[in-house]
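A reminder from the course coordinator: this example appears on the midterm review sheet, so study it carefully.

Given structure:
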């Protein structure tokens, strides 16, 4: 038996050779780039070993639990030998300006009558003070005292006047005057000529005091 060889002696391609060379060059460059391994020198000294005591961890602190304090229930205080009475208000019935408030017990016992006067609200009175009656305004100024007029003295007299319920002057009192002549002239004029509208309370006249000032001036 004979065999026929089919192998053909083919020339390698240049492209494959270049690729193979590039791979080998890359491997060589990578090996060169690896840093060298430094082997430490051999330790020639003496190693001394001794035991170290390890401190145990602290034990946890457990606080004593405080007992809960419950508030004592409040009890109703009452006088000894005194029964509880629940007051129940009953209808109020007015009788001739009075009302009877009856407080009864919840157990159906006899009630207690407490009479009291009904509250009456009255309005405040309307009061008007006394004032000079304008119908007699021309009679208000007293005559000028002759002696004070010759001396050309002027004055101001303050008086208190009691005005009656009819508007007439009942009484006059001096408050201040620079000279007795001015006071005498004012008093004389007030008792004879002065007229007022009296003070009223709810439309009814009554006596009242009023304060006035009288001026004595010289008109040039």
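Designed residues:
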């Amino acid at each position: 038996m004979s065999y026929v060889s089919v192998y053909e002696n083919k020339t390698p391609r240049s492209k494959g050779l270049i690729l193979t060379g590039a791979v080998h060059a890359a491997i060589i460059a990578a090996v060169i780039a690896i840093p060298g391994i430094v082997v430490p020198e051999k330790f020639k000294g003496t190693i001394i070993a001794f035991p170290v005591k390890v401190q145990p961890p602290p034990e946890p602190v457990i606080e004593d639990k405080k007992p809960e304090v419950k508030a004592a229930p409040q009890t109703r205080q009452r006088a000894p030998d005194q029964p509880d009475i629940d007051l129940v208000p009953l209808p109020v019935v007015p009788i001739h300006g009075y009302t009877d408030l009856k407080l009864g017990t919840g157990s159906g016992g006899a009630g207690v009558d407490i009479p009291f006067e009904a509250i009456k609200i009255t309005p405040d009175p309307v009061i008007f003070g006394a004032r000079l009656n304008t119908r007699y305004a021309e009679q208000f100024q007293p005559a000028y005292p002759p002696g004070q007029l010759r001396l050309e003295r002027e004055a101001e007299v303050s008086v208190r006047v009691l005005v009656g319920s009819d508007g007439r002057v009942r009484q006059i009192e001096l408050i201040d005057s620079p000279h007795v002549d001015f006071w005498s002239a004012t008093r004389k004029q007030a008792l004879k000529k002065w007229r007022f509208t009296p003070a009223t309370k709810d439309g009814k006249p009554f006596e009242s005091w009023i304060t006035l000032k009288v001026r004595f001036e010289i008109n040039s």
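The CA atoms of residues 140 and 194 lie 6 Å apart. Residues 87-117 form one domain.
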